[in-house]
């Protein structure tokens, strides 16, 4: 789970302007911090303990983003009524993770999972064979309730009157042994998740959004991951300043070389070579070690040792086919370019955004949750005038990732915006 923000003072107001009640600090799990289950035997015993409980499972996972190349889970926290909390080490058991963790996966299939920001944790849990049969995402529920702040600490304070202090979510969870204070933080992340689920579910029920939430959670549970785009090197920070195709070829080769090293060593790419160094080397294009090591970052002892690796990458770039300056894309260009390239589409997009913004205010849901902005852009860019815009819009939304509640609400608004032909 991403690191929780500080809960704030007791005088902080909620979205209605009403002062929030003073929060009670939540400093330690009520049953204490459990031992970490690391061995095959301990993990099987943890599964038996969870099976003895009842009701939904509060689930969370900790990764080592920014430290490791992989997005794997390095700790899994689970809590269930009647069983308490278990902490699972999914990497230190010495066997095949999916096999060793099969007893946990089997037990967790028995009931609903409660997670906060489930899209962050589901991929790394699926990687070790653990998948939910039903899901409730308290962060997404908070968005549907139109809360301004939906981080775990803010929602726990608002709905449960408890204060979670800033923790260790951004730490290197691949570290072993894990410090006791980190384990305390990890256990607290699932301590009150089920209580939070009940509280936010009551809010959504009062707002008439329970069915919307159900559809959103089921979509989140079943959606297949979008394949990673081919030209990932184009996400290098600062690449917008590089317009020369030959320099872009150097960015591509340096990025690819760094990625191969990072993958092999399971180290975050930025710890191998920062993006700023890639851009600097690509734009100056040094052809000797002396020139390369005159650049910032490359002058350090670590990069001086690896200078030949980066120099070889620059050499390969000089003889490679330069890439297009603009990234090839099957979708519409950025909306900022529409007025020049396709002004009628820009007019449609403005009308569609205005209708959706008004609708979002009426139903008290963030406009980006009402319908994916990407879908709105694609519809407006490809739109062809028709005698029946309502049917055309509905057919488009049905063929996309839009959920039923989104089609029923946003479809008529979009049809209204697109009904008038653009001159």
Automatic annotation (TrEMBL):
Identification of the protein by name: 3'-5' exonuclease
UniProt-recorded Gene Ontology molecular function terms: 3'-5' exonuclease activity; nucleic acid binding; nucleotide binding
Keyword DNA damage: no
HRDC domain: residues covered: 244-324
PROSITE patterns with a match to the protein in the record: HRDC
SMART domains to which the protein is assigned, alphabetical: 35EXOc, HRDC
Any single GO BP term: nucleobase-containing compound metabolic process
PANTHER family found in the cross-reference section: RIBONUCLEASE D (PTHR47649:SF1)
Domain of life: Bacteria
Record keywords, A-Z: Exonuclease, Hydrolase, Nuclease
Region annotation (Disordered) ranges: 1-35, 317-343
Biased amino acid composition, Acidic residues: 12-23
